[in-house]
Design goal:
alpha/beta; Rossmann fold; 49% helix; 12% strand; globular
Protein backbone atom coordinates (compact mmCIF):
# COMPACT_ATOMS: atom_id res chain seq x y z
CA UNK A 1 0.00 0.00 0.00
CA UNK A 2 1.19 3.47 -0.87
CA UNK A 3 -0.87 5.82 1.27
CA UNK A 4 -2.60 8.39 -0.92
CA UNK A 5 -5.77 9.18 1.00
CA UNK A 6 -6.73 9.25 4.67
CA UNK A 7 -10.13 8.79 6.26
CA UNK A 8 -11.43 9.34 9.78
CA UNK A 9 -14.61 7.84 11.13
CA UNK A 10 -15.55 10.20 13.91
CA UNK A 11 -14.67 13.88 14.05
CA UNK A 12 -14.15 14.31 17.78
CA UNK A 13 -11.18 15.11 20.02
CA UNK A 14 -8.75 12.49 18.74
CA UNK A 15 -9.35 13.37 15.11
CA UNK A 16 -8.75 17.04 15.93
CA UNK A 17 -5.51 16.13 17.71
CA UNK A 18 -4.28 14.24 14.62
CA UNK A 19 -5.23 17.02 12.23
CA UNK A 20 -3.72 19.75 14.40
CA UNK A 21 -0.50 17.78 14.89
CA UNK A 22 -0.11 17.31 11.13
CA UNK A 23 -0.92 20.96 10.53
CA UNK A 24 1.62 22.23 13.07
CA UNK A 25 4.30 19.96 11.66
CA UNK A 26 3.40 21.05 8.11
CA UNK A 27 2.70 17.46 7.15
CA UNK A 28 -1.08 17.50 6.70
CA UNK A 29 -1.90 14.81 4.11
CA UNK A 30 -3.36 16.24 0.94
CA UNK A 31 -6.44 14.02 0.77
CA UNK A 32 -8.37 13.69 4.04
CA UNK A 33 -12.03 12.74 4.47
CA UNK A 34 -13.74 12.88 7.87
CA UNK A 35 -17.13 11.29 8.48
CA UNK A 36 -19.34 12.10 11.45
CA UNK A 37 -23.09 12.08 12.03
CA UNK A 38 -22.97 15.53 13.65
CA UNK A 39 -23.04 18.36 11.06
CA UNK A 40 -21.88 20.89 13.66
CA UNK A 41 -18.78 18.82 14.40
CA UNK A 42 -18.00 18.60 10.68
CA UNK A 43 -18.52 22.33 10.19
CA UNK A 44 -16.01 23.14 12.95
CA UNK A 45 -13.44 20.80 11.42
CA UNK A 46 -13.98 22.27 7.96
CA UNK A 47 -13.47 25.78 9.33
CA UNK A 48 -10.27 24.81 11.12
CA UNK A 49 -8.87 22.67 8.28
CA UNK A 50 -10.33 23.99 5.00
CA UNK A 51 -8.46 21.47 2.88
CA UNK A 52 -10.24 18.43 4.27
CA UNK A 53 -13.46 16.88 2.97
CA UNK A 54 -16.29 16.14 5.40
CA UNK A 55 -19.27 13.84 5.04
CA UNK A 56 -21.94 11.94 6.92
CA UNK A 57 -21.55 9.03 4.48
CA UNK A 58 -19.30 6.32 5.89
CA UNK A 59 -18.98 4.56 2.54
CA UNK A 60 -17.01 7.55 1.21
CA UNK A 61 -14.49 7.25 4.04
CA UNK A 62 -13.83 3.52 4.01
CA UNK A 63 -12.57 3.50 0.43
CA UNK A 64 -9.56 5.60 1.46
CA UNK A 65 -6.12 3.99 1.64
CA UNK A 66 -5.87 4.31 5.44
CA UNK A 67 -8.84 4.86 7.74
CA UNK A 68 -8.59 5.88 11.40
CA UNK A 69 -11.46 4.59 13.49
CA UNK A 70 -11.92 7.44 15.97
CA UNK A 71 -15.04 6.34 17.85
CA UNK A 72 -15.77 5.34 21.43
CA UNK A 73 -15.92 1.63 22.35
CA UNK A 74 -19.69 1.63 23.06
CA UNK A 75 -20.47 2.38 19.39
CA UNK A 76 -17.58 0.47 17.84
CA UNK A 77 -19.49 -2.71 16.94
CA UNK A 78 -22.31 -0.73 15.32
CA UNK A 79 -19.89 1.36 13.27
CA UNK A 80 -17.96 -1.68 12.09
CA UNK A 81 -21.18 -3.36 11.07
CA UNK A 82 -22.09 -0.32 9.01
CA UNK A 83 -18.77 -0.09 7.16
CA UNK A 84 -17.67 -3.67 6.57
CA UNK A 85 -19.57 -4.07 3.30
CA UNK A 86 -17.98 -0.93 1.81
CA UNK A 87 -14.44 -1.42 3.11
CA UNK A 88 -11.87 -1.91 0.33
CA UNK A 89 -9.78 -5.09 0.75
CA UNK A 90 -6.57 -3.05 0.55
CA UNK A 91 -7.63 -0.39 3.09
CA UNK A 92 -5.61 -0.23 6.29
CA UNK A 93 -8.02 0.28 9.19
CA UNK A 94 -6.49 1.77 12.34
CA UNK A 95 -8.48 1.63 15.56
CA UNK A 96 -7.80 4.41 18.08
CA UNK A 97 -9.85 2.83 20.88
CA UNK A 98 -9.10 0.44 23.74
CA UNK A 99 -11.02 -2.76 24.46
CA UNK A 100 -11.49 -4.02 20.89
CA UNK A 101 -8.67 -6.42 20.04
CA UNK A 102 -7.34 -7.01 16.55
CA UNK A 103 -9.02 -10.40 16.54
CA UNK A 104 -12.37 -8.92 17.55
CA UNK A 105 -12.08 -6.13 14.99
CA UNK A 106 -11.34 -8.69 12.27
CA UNK A 107 -14.31 -10.80 13.32
CA UNK A 108 -16.70 -7.82 13.35
CA UNK A 109 -15.40 -6.78 9.93
CA UNK A 110 -16.16 -10.17 8.42
CA UNK A 111 -12.51 -11.18 8.04
CA UNK A 112 -10.85 -7.91 7.05
CA UNK A 113 -7.39 -8.30 8.55
CA UNK A 114 -5.48 -5.23 7.41
CA UNK A 115 -5.61 -3.74 10.87
CA UNK A 116 -3.61 -1.86 13.46
CA UNK A 117 -4.39 -0.41 16.86
CA UNK A 118 -3.01 2.84 18.28
CA UNK A 119 -3.52 4.29 21.76
CA UNK A 120 -3.30 8.04 21.08
CA UNK A 121 -1.98 10.63 23.51
CA UNK A 122 -3.07 14.28 23.71
CA UNK A 123 0.47 15.77 23.71
CA UNK A 124 0.57 14.57 20.10
CA UNK A 125 -1.09 17.91 19.38
CA UNK A 126 2.33 19.59 19.75
CA UNK A 127 4.36 16.67 18.39
CA UNK A 128 5.22 15.40 21.88
CA UNK A 129 2.90 12.41 22.01
CA UNK A 130 3.40 8.80 23.01
CA UNK A 131 1.22 6.63 20.76
CA UNK A 132 1.97 2.90 21.11
CA UNK A 133 0.97 0.72 18.16
CA UNK A 134 0.06 -2.94 17.70
CA UNK A 135 -0.03 -4.32 14.17
CA UNK A 136 -1.95 -7.23 12.72
CA UNK A 137 0.42 -10.06 11.72
CA UNK A 138 -0.93 -9.79 8.18
CA UNK A 139 0.62 -6.34 7.67
CA UNK A 140 3.84 -6.03 5.72
CA UNK A 141 6.96 -4.11 6.70
CA UNK A 142 5.92 -1.46 4.15
CA UNK A 143 2.49 -1.14 5.79
CA UNK A 144 4.13 -0.59 9.16
CA UNK A 145 6.54 1.95 7.75
CA UNK A 146 3.76 3.93 6.11
CA UNK A 147 1.64 4.02 9.28
CA UNK A 148 4.70 4.99 11.31
CA UNK A 149 5.32 7.81 8.84
CA UNK A 150 1.77 9.10 9.35
CA UNK A 151 2.24 8.97 13.12
CA UNK A 152 5.74 10.46 13.21
CA UNK A 153 4.62 14.14 13.35
CA UNK A 154 2.64 13.30 16.49
CA UNK A 155 5.66 12.13 18.50
CA UNK A 156 6.75 8.62 19.48
CA UNK A 157 4.85 5.58 18.15
CA UNK A 158 6.65 2.44 19.34
CA UNK A 159 5.42 -1.02 18.37
CA UNK A 160 4.21 -2.86 21.49
CA UNK A 161 2.50 -6.12 22.35
CA UNK A 162 -1.23 -5.73 21.85
CA UNK A 163 -1.96 -7.09 25.32
CA UNK A 164 -0.30 -3.99 26.82
CA UNK A 165 -2.37 -1.38 24.97
CA UNK A 166 -5.03 -1.02 27.66
CA UNK A 167 -2.34 -0.43 30.27
CA UNK A 168 -0.95 2.34 28.09
CA UNK A 169 -4.48 3.75 27.76
CA UNK A 170 -4.64 4.25 31.53
CA UNK A 171 -1.03 5.35 32.06
CA UNK A 172 -0.12 7.45 29.02
CA UNK A 173 -3.39 8.28 27.23
CA UNK A 174 -5.33 9.32 30.34
CA UNK A 175 -2.19 10.25 32.28
CA UNK A 176 -2.08 13.97 31.44
CA UNK A 177 -5.49 14.42 33.06
CA UNK A 178 -4.01 13.36 36.40
CA UNK A 179 -1.48 16.20 36.22
CA UNK A 180 -2.80 19.06 34.10
CA UNK A 181 -5.17 20.55 36.67
CA UNK A 182 -2.41 20.52 39.28
CA UNK A 183 0.08 22.18 36.95
CA UNK A 184 -2.48 24.81 35.98
CA UNK A 185 -3.00 25.59 39.66
CA UNK A 186 0.75 26.05 40.07
CA UNK A 187 0.79 28.28 36.99
CA UNK A 188 -1.91 30.51 38.44
CA UNK A 189 -0.23 30.64 41.84
CA UNK A 190 3.08 31.55 40.23
CA UNK A 191 1.49 34.62 38.68
CA UNK A 192 0.26 35.65 42.09
CA UNK A 193 3.73 35.14 43.52
CA UNK A 194 5.23 37.54 40.96
CA UNK A 195 6.53 35.28 38.18
CA UNK A 196 5.69 36.24 34.63
CA UNK A 197 4.36 33.67 32.20
CA UNK A 198 7.72 33.01 30.53
CA UNK A 199 9.39 32.43 33.89
CA UNK A 200 6.58 30.13 35.02
CA UNK A 201 6.67 28.09 31.82
CA UNK A 202 10.41 27.51 32.13
CA UNK A 203 10.18 26.63 35.81
CA UNK A 204 7.28 24.21 35.41
CA UNK A 205 8.70 22.47 32.33
CA UNK A 206 12.08 21.87 33.95
CA UNK A 207 10.56 20.93 37.29
CA UNK A 208 8.23 18.33 35.76
CA UNK A 209 10.84 16.85 33.43
CA UNK A 210 13.59 16.90 36.05
CA UNK A 211 11.34 15.54 38.76
CA UNK A 212 10.23 12.68 36.54
CA UNK A 213 13.78 11.82 35.55
CA UNK A 214 14.96 11.93 39.16
CA UNK A 215 12.28 9.43 40.19
CA UNK A 216 12.89 7.11 37.25
CA UNK A 217 16.59 7.50 36.46
CA UNK A 218 18.50 8.55 39.61
CA UNK A 219 18.99 5.03 40.94
CA UNK A 220 17.54 6.11 44.28
CA UNK A 221 14.61 4.33 45.82
CA UNK A 222 11.24 6.12 45.63
CA UNK A 223 11.49 6.86 49.36
CA UNK A 224 14.97 8.31 48.92
CA UNK A 225 13.81 10.51 46.05
CA UNK A 226 10.86 11.79 48.04
CA UNK A 227 13.18 12.57 50.94
CA UNK A 228 15.31 14.92 48.82
CA UNK A 229 13.00 17.84 49.60
CA UNK A 230 12.43 18.44 53.33
CA UNK A 231 9.44 20.78 53.01
CA UNK A 232 6.29 19.05 51.73
CA UNK A 233 3.34 21.47 51.88
CA UNK A 234 0.84 18.83 50.73
CA UNK A 235 2.20 15.92 52.78
CA UNK A 236 -0.97 15.40 54.80
CA UNK A 237 -2.96 14.96 51.56
CA UNK A 238 -0.68 12.35 49.96
CA UNK A 239 -2.50 9.40 51.51
CA UNK A 240 -5.90 10.42 50.16
CA UNK A 241 -4.47 11.14 46.68
CA UNK A 242 -2.65 7.80 46.67
CA UNK A 243 -5.90 6.05 47.58
CA UNK A 244 -7.55 7.66 44.55
CA UNK A 245 -4.81 6.33 42.28
CA UNK A 246 -4.96 2.87 43.84
CA UNK A 247 -8.75 2.54 43.56
CA UNK A 248 -9.93 4.51 40.55
CA UNK A 249 -7.23 3.63 38.03
CA UNK A 250 -7.41 -0.16 38.55
CA UNK A 251 -11.19 0.16 38.23
CA UNK A 252 -10.97 1.95 34.88
CA UNK A 253 -8.37 -0.57 33.70
CA UNK A 254 -10.69 -3.45 34.52
CA UNK A 255 -13.46 -1.69 32.64
CA UNK A 256 -11.51 -1.33 29.39
CA UNK A 257 -9.58 -4.60 29.19
CA UNK A 258 -10.91 -6.95 26.50
Amino acid sequence: MTTKSIGFIGGGRITRIFLEAWKRQESLPGNIVVADNNPETLAKLQAAYPGIETTTNLSIVVVQDAVFLSVHPPVMAEVLGNVKASLKPETLLVSLAPKFTLAKLERLLGGHARLARVIPNAPSLIGAGFNPVAYSPTLTALDKTELATLLAPLGESPEVAEVKLEAYAVISAMGPTYLWFQLQNLRELAAGFGLNDAETITALKLMVCGGTRTLLESGLTPAEVMDLIPVKPLAEMEKSVTELYQTRLPAIFQKIIP
